[in-house]
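== Polypeptide entry ==
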Amino acid sequence: METIFKAIFASTQDICDEFSIEQSELEPYDVLYAYYDYAAYDGNALVILQKKDDKSLWEVHAGHCSCYGLEDQFYPELSAVEAIDARLSAECKYMSDFLSVEDWATVSASLRN
C-alpha cells in the first residue's frame, strides 16, 4: 500500500522535518497515513505506522500552538485496527478531523489482508 499523505505532509521527509527527527526513527515502520495541518495559530498531526518486523499498528498524535511546531512530539503509541474502528464509528470529533472514514477504509483494508 502506498502512504496516504494529507494536508501539509507530502513525504516521509516532511514527517522528519516537522517532527525534527532523523529518517532512522522512521526506519522500523511503514508509514500508512500521515496528516498535518495548521490554521490560524495551531496545528495538529496524526501519523499511522505499521512496524515492519511484527506488523503491529502504531499512532503518533501531536499538536501545537503558535509558539512551537511538532518538534519533540514523535512518540509512537501501540494501537490496533479495532481501536481506530471504534473511535471512527463513535464519530470521535478528534479522530474524524484528521482521518476520514474513506481513508481509514483504504488503510485498514491493507492491514486486514
